[in-house]
Design a protein that fits this description.
three-stranded antiparallel β-sheet; binds zinc ion; 171 residues
Length: 171
């Protein structure tokens, strides 16, 4: 796999997950009445047998991804009580979905690969350097647990064009 997915700039830790199956559903459509069927919900329509095939469904894709975000948020908040849900953007392609006073965590998706990243909120502490060290330690602490518990893919290197090289984690 050689693909690139965004993550928070300045991240101390990044985890990756294969989400290429997200939104893929067994679907069939009736040529006569244009009705759609999902997940083998009916065998025939208008007297004709329906043939199902696996294809991308946009609504299901959003549903799967929303579920992934909620699952990530609840796992991280269960482990780290200081984290709270937030809805922000880093100005690129990463959504910031969790934060505390020191760090923020983001999610980004590209071509079936999703990244989870954590970074210290250094911009907030430009004039209070003592907090920068604290924020970095908090990011290390949270990021270490995230690396071990979130994601099923790891980055093993990069091509010269900047594209990442990934492989499935062995469990
Ligand atoms: Zn029909």
């Amino acid at each position: 796999m050689g693909r690139s997915v965004n993550y928070l700039s300045g991240a101390t830790h990044v985890s990756y997950m294969d989400t290429s199956e997200y939104g893929m559903r067994s679907k069939a459509s009736c040529e006569v009445c244009d009705e759609y069927y999902m997940e083998e919900e009916a065998n025939e329509c208008c007297g004709k047998t329906l043939s199902y095939r696996i294809e991308y469904d946009e609504f299901s894709g959003r549903y799967d991804f929303d579920y992934l975000i909620e699952d990530f948020q609840s796992k991280m908040m269960d482990r780290f009580k200081s984290l709270e849900i937030c809805e922000e953007h880093d100005g690129r392609e990463t959504s910031i979905v969790l934060e505390n006073s020191l760090v923020e965590l983001g999610i980004s998706e590209y071509c079936g690969l999703t990244s989870f990243s954590v970074r210290p909120k250094d911009s907030l502490y430009e004039y209070t350097p003592d907090l920068t060290g604290l924020a970095k330690r908090n990011a290390e602490h949270i990021g270490k647990w995230m690396s071990e518990n979130i994601g099923d893919i790891q980055k093993i290197g990069s091509f010269s064009n900047g594209e990442g090289v990934y492989e499935r984690k062995t469990k």
